[in-house]
Amino acid sequence: MAAEPPDAQMTSASLAISAAARLEPQGLAADLLTQARQRYGLASDAFGRKKYKDAIRFADEARAIADQSAARARLTDARAEVEEKQARNADLRRQLQMQPENRQ
Amino acid sequence: MIRPLRHDMYLLQVIAMAVGLWTCTFAIAAPTPDPDAARLAASLATLDADPTLADRARLERFKAAQAVATLQVARSRDRAHALVLAEAWVAAAQDAAQAEALLEQSRQLDRERDQIMVEASRRDAELARREADRLRMQALAREEEAARLAQQQEEDRLAAETSAADADAANAQATQAMKLAEARARETELARKEAELIAAVAADSAGDEAALPPSRRSGKRTIYTLPGSAFGSGSASLGANAQSSLRRLAAAVSGKRSVRIEAHTDSQGADASNLALSQKRADAVRQALQGAGVPAARLVAVGKGETDPVTDNASAAGRARNRRVEIIVE
After folding, report:
1. Minimal-distance CA residue of chain A relative to B67
2. What does the alpha-carbon distance between residue A66 and residue A37 come to, in Å, rounded to a whole number?
3. Out of B95, B110, B119, whose CB is closest to A71?
4. Hey, is B223 helix, strand or coil?
5. How far apart are CA B100 and CA B57, in angstroms?
6. Does residue B117 fall inside a structural domain?
7. Residue A3: inside a domain
8. Can you say whether the dihedral through the CA atoms of B28, B32, B37, B43 is positive or negative?
9. What is the average pLDDT score of chain B?
C-alpha cells in the first residue's frame, strides 16, 4: 500500500520556518534556522522522490529545529529588551535623583 | 519584540495524559534507559524544579517531554531522528520558558518605569508648585518694593514741594520784607517830606503871619524892626523866617521912595566888631530886599553897632531888644 504524501508535515514545517524567519534571528537562532531550512530542503527532496517516510522525518526535524530557532530568537529578544528597560529605568532613576529637589 | 505564545490548557492536559500512558507502555517494553533521553529528561526536571520557570512554556515543555519519551523507546534506526527532535524540543522548552520569564520581567520593568514616571511627574509638579510659589513671592516682594519706592518718591516729591514752597515763602517773605522796608523807607521819606512841607508851610504860615516885621509909625515914616534872633549868634546870615518876612516887606515897600536900613548890636564885644557885624547885617537885609525886587537905588544900609541902644544892655532881655535891624520906610 502506497503511503500518503505528508502534506500536513511539510506545511507545518514550512509555517514554522516562516514564523522563525519573521523573527529575524541572530547568532545561534540564525544557525538553527539555517539547519531547519536544510532539513526542510531534504524533506522536499524526499517528498519529490516520493520517499514520504524520509520526507516526514526531515519535515518533523525541520519544524522542531525551526521552533527551537524561534524560541531562541524570542529569548534573545527578551534578554535585549529586559536589558534595555533595566538601563532605561536606571537612567530615569538617575535623572530623578539629579532633580533639584534631591541635590545636596 | 516578543511574540505572544499560545496556550491551550485543555489540549495540553489531554495530550499529557495520552503521552503519559504511551510512555509507560514503552517503558515497560524497553526498560533500559537511553543516556541521551536521561540527560534530556534531567534537563526537563531541572526546568520543572526552577520556581521561576516551572509554569512557563507548557506547550514546548509538553512537546519536549513527548520527544524525550519517544527517544527512550526509539528503535535504533529511529534513534537519531528521535534524538534530533528531543534535543530541539528540550532546548526550545528551556528557551521559551526563559523568554516568558523575561517577558514577565519586561512587563514588570514597564510598571516600574511607570512608577518612576509618576514619581517624576509628582516631583515635577512639586517643583513647579515651589517655583510658582517662589515667583509669586518674588512678584509680591517686587510689588512691595515698588510700593515702597513709590511712597518714598511721593514723600520726596512732597518734601521737595514743601522745600520749594518754603523757599518760595522765604523768598516771598524776603521780598515782602524788602518791599515793606522800601515802603517804610518811602513812608519815612514821605513823612520827612511831609514834615518838611508842613514845616515849610508852617514857616510860610509863620512868615505870612509875620510877613511884615513889627512896625511902628514915627511921623511919615514906618519903622519895621527885625529882632536880633533873625540872625545866628555873631553871624550876618538871615534865617528862613527873616528872609520870608523881608520878601513880604519888599512887596509892602515897593511903592515907597526910600528904604533905610539900620542895624544895631548890643554892647557885648568890641565896638569895632559890633560895628562891622551890624554893617554886615544891614547889608544882608539890603541884599534880601533887593533880591525880593526892591530897587537898589532906594536902599541904604547902615551899621550902627552898639551906639544906639533902645534899652539898657545890663540884662539879657535888654541886650536882646538892642540887637535889631530897623527898616525905615518913607
Report:
1. A64
2. 8
3. B95
4. strand
5. 7
6. no
7. no
8. positive
9. 83
The DSSP symbol for B236 reads -
Q: What is the ipTM of this complex?
A: 0.91
Number of domain units in chain B: 3
Query: Nearest C-alpha of chain B: how many angstroms from A67?
Result: 7
Backbone angles phi, psi at B74, to 5 degrees: -70, 140
The domain total for chain A is 1
Residues spanned by the domain of B16: 5-106
Interface test with B, best of A26, A34, A68 (most B CBs within 10 A): A68
Residue B104 sits at the chain A interface (C-beta within 8 Å): no
Among candidate residues A13, A82, A29, the one with its CA nearest the CA of residue B103: A82
For residue B304, give the DSSP letter.
-
Give yes or no for A71 touching B (CB within 8 A).
yes
Count CB pairs under 8 A between chains A and B.
95
The answer to whether the Cβ–Cβ distance between A61 and B127 falls below 8 Å is no
Condensed to tens digits (0 to 9), the pLDDT of residues B57-116 reads 999 999 999 999 999 999 999 999 999 999 999 999 999 999 999 999 999 999 999 998
Reported pTM: 0.51
Q: Is residue A19 part of a domain?
A: yes
> Which cell goes with B115?
512608577
pLDDT of residue A1: 41
Reduced 3-state DSSP string for B284-301: HHHHHHHHCCCCHHHEEE
Cα-only R_g, chain A: 22
